[in-house]
Amino acid sequence: MQLIKVATAVLNQTPLDWEGNLTNIKSAITLARDQGASLVCLPELCITGYGCEDAFLSVDVQQRALRTLLDLVPLTEGIVVSLGLPLFHGGALYNCACLIANQQIMGFVAKNQLAGDGIHYEPRWFKPWESSQVSEVEIQGRSYPLGNLIFDCEGVRIGFEICEDAWAAHRPAHALSQAAVDIILNPSASHFAFGKQEIRRRLVLESSRAYGVTYVYTNLLGNEAGRIIYDGAALIASSGKLLAEGRRLSFDDVVLTTAIVDVDLTRMNRARLMSFRPHQTPQAANSVDVPFAFADIEPETIQNKMPGWEQGPSVKEEEFTRTIALGLFDYLRKSHAKGFVISLSGGADSAAAAVLVWLLVKLGLDELGAEKFLSKLAYIAGLAELKTAEQIMPRLLTCVYQATRNSSETTEQAAASLAEAIGAEYLRLDVDSIVEAYTGIVSEAVGRDLNWDEDDIALQNIQARVRAPGVWMVANLRDSLLLATSNRSEAAVGYTTMDGDTCGGLSPISGIDKAFLRSWLSWMCETGPEETGNLPVLELINRQEPTAELRPQNAEQTDEGDLMPYDLLDWIERAAIRDKQGPVDLFRMARVEFPGYPPAQLVEWITRFFRLWSRNQWKRERYAPSFHVDDENLDPKTWCRFPILSGGFEQELSDMRDLL
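Structure tokens predicted for Glutamine-dependent NAD(+) synthetase:
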């Protein structure tokens, strides 16, 4: 039998961070060699970073990427390495993987299928490679092959699928299998979304089985460029058997996953496949002879154990926890902010944001230890000598409660108790006098006293807006990042005050619906991640009915009273926006899904949703950058386009009302 130790190296890269990206790649190659791997696959576009966007079209970026590639070639002695970079050739730019073997560039494989849906815009920068074409690219006077190449390393045949290639109907793997390739490498930049890892597992396992190959999948890690978070998925499978799965959502910069593959066994399994119809003539045009022989190795036991949370009953809660915590941590350190500031209202949304900052500290310390964790924040003066979460939290998080006469003792107690429990700095500002001053100034200007019967929205909004300058001032004083706390359900209907609760440089939970946030807070109260445990203090938050607290307390204002039940709102949003159902069909479906509500009430709520959705696209356009964690989100910059001005479905709503 012929055994080969292969590795995937997931990397936390940053667009255009040439030094940092190079350091991570060097570490990955060294780590792979130290662990005895002779083949290592690094992620898609790992040299430049995947999220360079229009900077990909810069000649300087393309040239620096090539220089970085050449700097890495001498470091590959005794090992085969694949690296991702943009490559300009024949007047067009291609998304490529370069295979280097023992200090020699052997060739480039260009991506065939470009990701151009959802959050991806690859066709804006790259051209798809025609699968049958093989060309040559010249670099510093030397020519290298470019195309859908097969690299023959002394009899061991290696091919590529680059991320989207594997998800398309006409994928390279079929031709590679018929050409008797032994190993397919898949360098990817695959964004996180709830439940996506299970889909990846099925893809990798079935690819290895159906094509009779060893399939090596590697991904980027962390918050690379601001909105997208990569989970660092790493999977190695042979002939339908999963050999290794790496740890996801790590706080480390480089995570290596290894497996030993039996090339001869894989070939025998492929020979049994009825679908295997090998090419009867050599494919000389796209075959590259690589003067590299994989060393003979002995069998060994490799431990790549999947963490328990991946297999537990609360995978979505765990994924949300770890994804947003990691996203916040990377955003903090890559933006060089000195910490976070949150306007803590005592309600669910701001509480969730504060708890997620606490979780980034707890999870980061648990995985990396204090010294390594704080070394990533070394630009923040005075952190290095700290050791515990209790010492670090007041330096990284300031919570500000801003009271008006409409605030309640319940929310103030909840805010203060939560800040104390997680160790954040807590400030209380009384902004009622500012509200009254603005109200008086405007009343005098318009020549009448403002009142709740005529001026409800204006009187609510001024309370939210006067909270913005003070909390921005605190953020400026702390040189920190202000987090906005609006959620996805509010974004759908514009139930938020622009320049009020939407203020912030980052909106970490605006992609998450309110129903899930409340469920997650209950889980955090009762269970929580195994590394941190639960936060019982959240009971003070969870027992409240969500309320903006902007009307007088005797009005008994609640969010669901202003809008509709959150479970119904979230269902309407998905049916109307994700599934593109019009009001009439949506009403018919709602009568089945929610039989407990009278038809007239459903019509009222559906009408309210469509009108508010249409009127408030401008608000969604103005949200601070948000994290993409759900492939159904409403962010117009990355996923869901809608006109700012429209007819607002009025004819469709009239048709629906006619059904009553």
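The mean pLDDT is 94.
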